[in-house]
Amino acid sequence: MDEPDALLRIRNASDIIIQNCTFTKSGGTGVRVDRYGQNILIANNKLSYLGRNAIGLAGRGPGYGDVKLQGKSKSTIDAYSRAVRRIKDHYDCCPDKLTKEQLENYFEK
User: Fold this and answer.
1) What is the pLDDT of residues 89-105, one digit of tens each?
2) d(C-alpha 7, C-alpha 37), whole Å
3) Which residues make Cβ contacts (< 8 Å) with residue 5, sequence separation at least 6?
4) Which residues constitute the domain of residue 80?
5) Which of 58, 59, 84, 108 is a good FRET partner for 77, with 20 to 30 A between their CA atoms?
6) Do residues 12 and 34 both lie within one domain?
7) How many independent structural domains does the chain possess?
């Protein structure tokens, strides 16, 4: 799937920092990193009212076919993404700010 469907698309790039930005009101993804992306930090950003993923990761290593995250299928990765969004919404905070206790409490329900 090679479509320009993100507000910010990073492609075949490395050593980039995306910090303290706002990505809002789009039918697509907020930030997408695809093909060869290495050492890219995405932190402390506000992503809201997006039709797809807040952050999408897809790609290939140099000279390789499509890479699957830890061998997981696209549907599994999508399920993980939806779960992270639900937990983030429940606690109204950025996923990287969630504590171990918050996660344990959420899954005890």
Assistant:
1) 898 887 777 888 888 88
2) 17
3) 28, 29, 32, 52
4) 70-109
5) 108
6) yes
7) 2
